[in-house]
Amino acid sequence: MGGIDWGDAPTWFAGVFAALAAYYTRGMLRSQRKQIDEQRQFIAAQSANLTLERRELEAIAAERREGQARAVRLQSIADLVLVYNESPAAIRDVTCFVDSREAGGTNVARIADAASNLGMAIRAVPDWPVPVDVPPGSLAAFDRTRHADVRVLFTDSAGVRWSLDEHNELGPAEPGRD
User: What is the mean pLDDT for each group of 10 consecutive residues in the chain (178 residues)?
Assistant: First the structure.
């Protein structure tokens, strides 16, 4: 055994270099895995935040969508149905339905400022429904047969059709019911 066999030295250097490269690569992979895990945690936190923000925006949009409709109320007094528009915008196509077994009666819709005396007749027609538009701060009065269930349909300024019953329960109007 005399000295170094230089024919094997390059193989040794290549082996040592390959081992160092593998060790370095292993460290890089660990570092990248750590970064990927941190990114996944960050993305999960962002996703949770976006979900909460989306829910909040949906709630705000629903409140905006329902806000005007909630400012409309119905009151039945003797043979009148009063529809108050206390919203800042007009409601359109206000229609009063009376579910009664009795037929007949004069069906008159009147629009007036909420503070006035309902004296201004808008239209008188012999058949239901009577669609009218009600400006903000005004009310519509519909004649009705006593002791009958009442339902009012109207369209808000966003074009959404709503149904309001005599207990002031509000909901989206069912298609085909008006």
Answer: 68 88 94 96 96 94 84 83 88 78 42 48 46 83 72 87 88 71
Strands (DSSP E) contained in 49-131 are 72-77, 80-85, 91-99, 107-113, 121-125
- CATH ID of 72-172, from 1.20.1740, 1.20.120, 3.30.2400, 2.60.40: 2.60.40
Q: What is the rounded CA–CA span in Å between residue 96 and residue 76?
A: 11
Instruction: State the Cα–Cα distance between residues 73 and 159, nearest whole angstrom.
Output: 18
Q: Per-domain residue ranges for the chain? A: 7-70, 72-172
Whose tokens are 């009218």? That residue is 132
Selection from 81, 71, 70, 83 nearest residue 149 by Cα: 81
Whole-model pTM?
A: 0.57
Phi/psi zone of residue 136: left (φ > 0), alpha (ψ -120 to 50 degrees), beta? Answer: beta
